[in-house]
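Posted in: Structural Biology > Protein-Ligand Complexes

Title: Requesting predicted complex, S-adenosylmethionine in pocket

I'd be grateful if someone could produce the 3D structure tokens for the following input. Sequence and ligand are given below.
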Amino acid sequence: MSYYEFSFVVAPDASDAFTRLLVDRGCLGVYEHAPHLVAYFPDSIGIDAIRHRIDDALAALKESGLPGDVTYEHVYLSERDWNETWKKKFQPIDVGKTLAIVPPWETSPAGRTAIIVDPGMAFGTGHHETTRFCLATIERLAGQTAHGRFCDIGTGTGILAIAARKLGYAEAVGVDIDPLAIDAARRNVILNELDNVTIHEGSVEKTTGQYDLVAANLLSEILKSLAPQIVARMKPDGLALLSGIMAGQEDEVIETFTALGTTVIEKLVDGRWVSLVIRR
Ligand code: SAM
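-- Reply #1 --
Done. Output follows.
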């Protein structure tokens, strides 16, 4: 497959939110290369439709009150260019106290547990703060709570499920509605040579039973709409990590989840993103 690479100039304050808006509109990967935000779309969408989606993201950005003055240009990348581009840009990153996200073509840093991630075409390369933040939180919670069953709703590259298994969870399940994410996640499970990690195409309905920890790095609206199903998947006394909430939207998410009988035990703010740890 070939891709379009878009280079945006976005106000620093708006960069996180704009990234998220692009990902929600079919963008496959974004990284910051100051002063640019570089984003990739598959050419199968068609350049006119991509422009339309970008316009829509810009309108949503302005509506949210963030600086909406964005300029951009784009280039077409053949499949070969794409692979080369990713290889250059995607370098190992240390996360939390013990983890490192490592692309398959790099060597794992000594003394850290490597989460091998071939970015493929899915969200979850560790280049987004919310992914790194979820990883660090899962690492911390794994040391404090029972780690039997872990579930990741919206698994992207499978990164959180893979990390959970490496951090000691006996079983990890990831689901995603995007077939490209499913392909990437399954490939990454194999690259990490893990058993007991299963990846299903679909959403919460594809998970079974209850879990010690449910992770969901999704936007607030999606979290709210999936709330009853997410809570039903938490063991009594089990935890959920809700992430991807833009600052200012957390109260609505808290209200929805507390009405379902859960308690917020941690509220973590990382720049413009908020994450919640809730207990059932
Ligand atoms: N878990 C990864 C991480 O933390 O980096 C990826 C998170 S990414 C922000 C959100 C993912 O959720 C995307 O791969 C998207 O396809 C998926 N998604 C969006 N809505 C969903 C839904 N209703 N059910 C399951 N997955 C969904």
